[in-house]
Amino acid sequence: MSAHKIGSLLFCPKCGTLLVLPKDGESTVVCEQCNHEEPATSYEGIEITTHSHPDAFPSALRQKRKTQTKRHDTGDHGTLVSEKCPACGHLQAYSKEMQLRSADEGSTIFYTCSSCKHGWRVNN
Fold it and tell me: Which positions are annotated as binding Zn(2+) 2 (predicted)?
């Protein structure tokens, strides 16, 4: 019985658990669930490719960069910025910045989706 291959992943033929890559010099890989031993040669010829969605790893720097790409809009709405709405996924929102906490702490940015009017806030 040999491991089931799906793309670049190998699964245990007995219990279906994802098998880990063999370390250098290892001749077998042991399933963490059922202790099935799979030969390391099962990994030969497999090309491993990974892709990450841009929003998969939130970053404070990316967040600041996004809020700086803005244009001023007239009225009481605030500033129109490139920000993804967590409710509807629209890519523009109005933002207003306020100092709600003590002076030695960051400000709070209030967002309102320009499409669905959903509101949320981020502590800066």
Answer: 85, 88, 113, 116
For the chain, the domains span 4-43, 79-123
pLDDT at residue 64, as a whole number: 63
DSSP state of 45: T
- Domain 79-123 top-level CATH class: mainly beta
- Residue 15 assigned as binding residue: yes
Three-state secondary-structure class, residue 103: coil
Residue 84 is labelled as binding a ligand: no
Residue 83 assigned as binding residue: no
pTM: 0.39
Q: Is the dihedral of CA 8, 11, 16, 17 positive or negative?
A: negative
Q: Is the pLDDT higher at 58 or at 66? A: 58
122 annotated ligand binder: no
